[in-house]
Structures are given as C-alpha cells and as structure tokens.
Amino acid sequence: MLVPAALPRIEGHDVRRLSEGWQAVATEPDACPDPAGIDRLGWLAARVPGTAAGALRDAGIDPAGDLDAQDWWFRTSFDDPGAQDGEQIVLRLDGIATVADVYLNGERVLASDSMFAAHAIDVGARLRASNDLAIRCRALSPLLRQRRKPRARWRTKLVSNGELRWFRTMLLGRAPGFAPGPAAVGPWRPVWLERRRGVALSELRLRPRVSGGDGVLAVRARLAAPSEAPPTAVAIELDGPSGHHAAPLALEREGGELVASGELRIASVATWWPHTHGEPVLHDVRLVVTCASQTGAVEAGRVGFRSLAPGARADHDIAADGLHLHINGVGIFARGAVWTPIDPVGLAPDPRELRTALETVCDAGMNMLRIPGTGAYEQPAFYDLCDELGILVWQDFMFANLDYPFSDDEFRGKVEREATELLASLAGRPSLSVLCGNSEIEQQVAMLGLEPELGRGEFFGEALPALLEAAQADALYVPSAPSGGDLPFRPDRGVANYYGVGGYRRPLTDARAAGVRFAAECLAFANVPDAEAIEELLPQTPGNVVAHHPIWKAGVPRDAGSGWDFDDIRDHYLARLYGVDPVELRSIDHDRYLDLSRAVTGEVMAEVFGEWRRAASSCGGALVLWFRDLAPGAGWGVLDHRGEPKVVFHHLRRALAPVAVWTTDEGLGGVAIHVANDRPDPLSARLRVALYRDLEQQVGEALEPLELEGHGAHESNVETLLGHFVDAGWAYRFGPPAQDLVVASVERDGDLLAQSVRFPAGRPAAAEPPGRIGLEASAQSLPGGTVRLTVSSRRLAYGVRVHVPGFVPADDAFAIEPGATRSVMLRPRTPDAAFAGGALTALNVRGRTRIASEESGE
C-alpha cells in the first residue's frame, strides 16, 4: 500500500497523534530483544516525533556519544475503545531511524529497516481499552561490522564506515568532517492513530499544469468504501484567486477499489511564482464524494499553476547547458542555499520555528533551497510552507558519495518504494523544481581517478527518470550534483559544485573565468557568528574562546584527511581583500580579527553573486553551502545554530534582493553598473553614481532616469554615465587613483531602494577615530513597538553594525555614503521589548558610537 507522507483530511475520519507520555532508554545491543524485559530499565522522558539525542538533550545529558552503539527503546501507553462497526483503525508511523521493531501490546506488528519509510498498519483487532506501544531501534554499529556483497567499488572519506551504503539512513550525524553527530536514532516522524469510517482514500494524485493561459488540474483518486454504500459520484472543486470551479470525475472499479479520475480546466488561471518574481498564488482543492444519500468532502490541500523549463530554448540540454530555470516563460536567477535541519538533534522543530526559518529565507532574497542527499526528506509542513512562501525546492534523493548496492534485489526494491512514495507526496507541488538523483557520486568516482561511467549507473540514469515519468512529476531531473561534461566537476558544463572561490583559494576573478552554468552548492566558508553565539561554545568562561582554541576548532568544518580547515580558507581571503596578516592580527587584536573575518566572507559572496547575476553571465543560479549551522561555532551557515543571521547573511541579502544594484570591475573596460528588477511590476526610479576621494570628497556624480520593465535588467558604465574618462576602476594606473570610492544607488522619491560600494584602491582596512568619520545615530520609537534608526556620517562609514538589545535591524553590516543619512527599522524580538539605548560600530571606526534617543513618533 502506498502511504502518502501527509493524508488529506476526510470528513468522518478521526486522526489522533500519539505524542504524549513517551519514554526512551538505551540498552546494550540485543540485551532486551523484546518488550518483556524493559519495565525494569531506567527511562528518560522523550518527545515523539523525536530522537534519542533529543531525549538526552532534554534530560541535560550531552548527546555527543556514539548513539549507533546501543539499542534504543521508546514506549508510550494510550487508551482506545477499539474499532466499532464499519470502522478501520490504522496505526501510522511516518518514519523510524533506522532498523526498528514495533510492538503493540507485546506483539511485533512491524519490522522496518529504512529511516525514510512510512508505514500504515491495521490494528483494529489488536487494540484494547489500554494499550502499550513500544519501538526498538537496533544498534547500527554491530550491523555495520557485517560485510556484505557486492563489495564497494570505491571508498569515500565522507563517512567513517562505508557499509552505511546498505542502510537507508541520514549521513548527517555520521560525517566526521562537517557533521560528526549526533546520529539520528528513534521515531523522528509522527506516530498516529487514524480511525477511518466510510470512504477511505489510499491514493490521491493532483497534477496541475498550464496550457496556454488556462490552468488544468488532472486528478486521480483511489477510494475504498463499504460495499453496502459505495460512492456513486465524485467531483473535484477548486477555490482561490481564479474563482470557484468544479467538475465531475469519471468512476471505474480497479480490483476492490474505485478510481475517480478526470481534469478540471480554469480559464485565465492565476499563476504561481517564486516570491522574488511574483506572487506564489495557491488554490484550495477538495473532493466531494457522494455515497447514496450522503455527501462527504476530502480536503485535498492546495495547488499552484506554473510552467517550468530548464532554459529558454526547446532543445536546452541540462548536461551541457546547465540550468536556467524558466517559470511561466520568465528566466529566473535561482539563488539560495543548501538546507540543513533546524533541529539537527531532535529532528522535530516547532512549526513556528520552521515558518520563521523559511520566512528568513525570503528575507534574504533567496528563492531556492536544496535538500541534500546527505540529509533526510523534510516533513510535509516544510513543503507546504515553500508552496505558500514561493520558495523553489531542489530535492535530492537520499544518496551521497557511496557505492550503493542497487544490484541487490532487496535493496533495490526498498529504494524504489522510497522514491515512489516521495514522488507521491511531492510531484504536484509548485515549489518542486529540481529532482536530483544523488549528491557527489559522479564526482567522487571521477576524482578518485576511476572510470567516470562507474558513477553514472542505471538506477540514476534510467530507473529514477522512469519513476518521475510514471508519477507525472513536473520537475527537472539531474542525475547527480555535480554532473555534466566529460568530467562531472567541470563548472562550465551541467551543474557544478563550485569551490574555485573558496576551498581552492582561486582569485575572485575565477567566478567569471570558470564559466559556471549552475552551482548546486558553492562558497563554503567558516562564517564567524556574532559574540553571543561564540560565547555558547564555552559558557562558563566565554572570554577563553579564541579562534585557535580546540573548542572553536571543533565547530569549524574540514574535509576529512586534509591539512587545512575552512578557517584557513577564510584567512586566505582576509589577507587578499584587506591586506592584513591574519595570524599577526589574531595574535595582537583578536576582536579586530573577528570583525574583519565576519565581513570578508560576506564581501566575497556578494562579489561572486554579482558576477553570476549579470545579464551577460552564463550562470543560471547558485546555492550557498549552507543555510544554517548544525552546531555552535564558525560553520558554513549564513545563520548560526540559533537561527540568528551572521554578517554574511546581510551582504547576501543585499546582493540577492529582487531589486538590486551592484558593480563589477571590467578591467580596462571600467566599472559596470548592474540593476535587476525581478519584480513583475515596472520600476521607475533613477540611477545615481557618485565618486569620492579620500572616502569623503565628492569628485564626480551622474544621474539618469531608470525605467525597467518587470523582470528586467539594466547595465551601464560609470564613465558613460559621467560622460568622460576617469579610470573608475584604477585599471590604467597612470598615477594615484582619482577616486577611492564608487557608490551606485537606485533611488525613488527620495527613498534609497538599493546601493552598492566599490573600492578601486582597496577596502578601508584601518579603524579611525570617531571624530574623523563623523558617524551619528538617533532612534525614534514608533507605534507597534518598532524603532526607526536614523544614521548619518560625514565620511564613509563602512561595515556599520547595529547593536540594540531586544531588537533586530532590517539591515546590518552596511555602508553609509559620505554626507548621507539613511533609516533602518528595528523590529522588537518580543512584544514587550522597549528601546533602552544602543550603539553602532563600524569597521573603519574605533570604538562604539552611542545611539541618541528621540521622543516617540506617531
């Protein structure tokens, strides 16, 4: 039976989540092979959905040990009156990590060996007035010591034990270099008791598409019902911005069930867009089922109508040309990040926390998230929110780096069922844009010097595409990331994992020279969080945490077996961009070292994305590795482990904004100015460029009207706007630079919509006395609890940070043009927050600048 990840709501059915009263305990492997001996054990309170690591954390116990070395039991009790006439009671377990046995009232009712499998068990005849439910998660370590055939044709350093290839479980938590633990163990997905009455739904397929200007919703539903009251009619109804629409479905019997199928056409349908380019319009769908004289409804969720293509041409070849997503006929520069679990310990985040995280994705100007093959499929609420918020999803199947035994019949059947179930739950979603067979398998093989075809097997090349076709999934398929070209890691073909700028320490100019078509992951840096997150590394003595401390280093990612880590990569660019010796600076002024380290990765990422986002660029998109840290420290995330933005986040937010301006150094061609208007509405504004000497004295300015159509772009040249040659990029070097600061701004009715700065002679690396810079700030409390911060500076203020306890700034780590004033809104963290003072810092200003308080505004 196909078990969807999230069943629709059906009138007359009761769904009860079994989430209360759970306990967990660890035993030695096979010490208690069944529930008979577990009563005498010492139990911990547990949460379900949740994990063994989560139970340890909640009990104040460090979950960092090897959780795979022990059996873990979970148990709870519940009352139920049992099945009544005409009822069916189903126990649903949406996911257990990893090899598990499930017991109901002492009877084993399920054996599962996949973290990614969902199960539905008819338990109506097994229930009592009082019931005991127990789950045994078997120790994985002894199972990994068993050697199986076929033997692996290659090895990877991603995980410590290559036998994990036989087990359908998450590699995050078992990857020593960047995610060493804790491992996922336990009922990480919800456990339900579903009481079914009357009609039951075993399959529902909704496949929306756009045909001309119309929307077409194809429907197929498989229904089971009592023989004495079978459905006599089934209709599909749709409501939303396109109005109310309904159509009857045809009924036919297949085996013991009825299949209802048909199509509903919606004229001039309102289409779904990624949030950067339009509105993510959704429509509510339900089935109306008539049985004799009774009518019931099945709330089937929401659908969005959009068209999808890999490029502008009909013959676009992903393997050669990469990806340049076209949504509703419009080219989309896809930008975002590789997703990591919000709660990597318990794997069950609060729904509000999940929504906040995905809203932060939108705030960052990101429009795509990748679920990597090293992780786990996300919960249905994640995909619901991506549909709602307009976030494109790149979904990997859960395969990474290893030589999986697809020739083994049992394993092959298991993973085909896994893929089929995933597609059943995701295939009709508007957010689903890319399905990827695996992470880095082709690259792993090729970089080991083996025959590249070893990594391009039949499963990823034929079987998965066939399953996509059978599921009618409207998504693009990529067999592996990276892939394409003669070798899969060539960035100018197919999709790439691009670390030229980053791990391979290439100059920033490599971002253009590499000819990247699409970066499925890129720009991994040890991004330094703010002080509050650093202090959590050693809360008893936070002042002892410095960038060479072992506790610090434990939070820095590294490639296993390498003599460097990602601190070293960041330091390389710190020396290049700021002209400082990182070791010397860290030794004599550690705080300054951290401030510059926070800024440099954001500067690098913004520069690279500026190259890729140009209208003339060959790049169709890029995803940063990764969105949020798994643990405290200087991880790859643009958010820290608490979900708080790092400085790099703010640089990316400006670079990725739907309306953005940026500059690129074209060498002897001068400095180019680029403007993007991803919004669907025309942009009427003005483009202003200003040149400054000594970071204060204006030596040139030009303005021009800017009329950009929706989804449009503009490119101009600084010297063309000025009307004369000024060597804007200091490329000819006939003498000292005529200007050391170039500011490009998009303005409308006195408001600053977007701004960027460029330093032809290098970034201002020295901190100067406050009086020389002239940085000032005042705050005004507004109705609703927000605060308006007004900031001005006589000279350039560079890397300005806002420090106001209890408030979150809408912008941070920004520059203030010489002589300019700008406003920044501060949002309260809690409803009762009140402004009680704060300060500003800047990279080129010594000390802190106090924020003056004004009277409240109305």
What would you say this structure looks like, in words?
Residues 1-5 have low confidence and may be disordered. Strand 17 and strand 18 form a beta hairpin. It contains 17 helices and 45 strands. It has 858 residues and is α+β, with helices and mostly antiparallel strands. It folds into 5 domains: 9-194, Jelly Rolls (Sandwich); 199-303, Sandwich (Immunoglobulin-like), CATH 2.60.40; 333-656, Alpha-Beta Barrel (TIM Barrel), CATH 3.20.20.80; 658-764, Immunoglobulin-like; 766-858, Immunoglobulins (Immunoglobulin-like, Sandwich), CATH 2.60.40. It is globular and about 90 Å long.
**What profile does the largest beta sheet have?**
8 strands, antiparallel
Distance between the termini: 61 Å
Can you tell me the number of structural domains?
A: 5
Radius of gyration: 29 Å
Mind telling me the CATH superfamily name of the largest domain?
Glycosidases
Q: Which segments are poorly predicted (pLDDT under 50) over 5 or more consecutive residues? A: 1-5
Outline: globular
CATH topology of the largest domain: TIM Barrel
Total strands: the figure is 45
Task: Report the CATH architecture of the largest domain.
Answer: Alpha-Beta Barrel
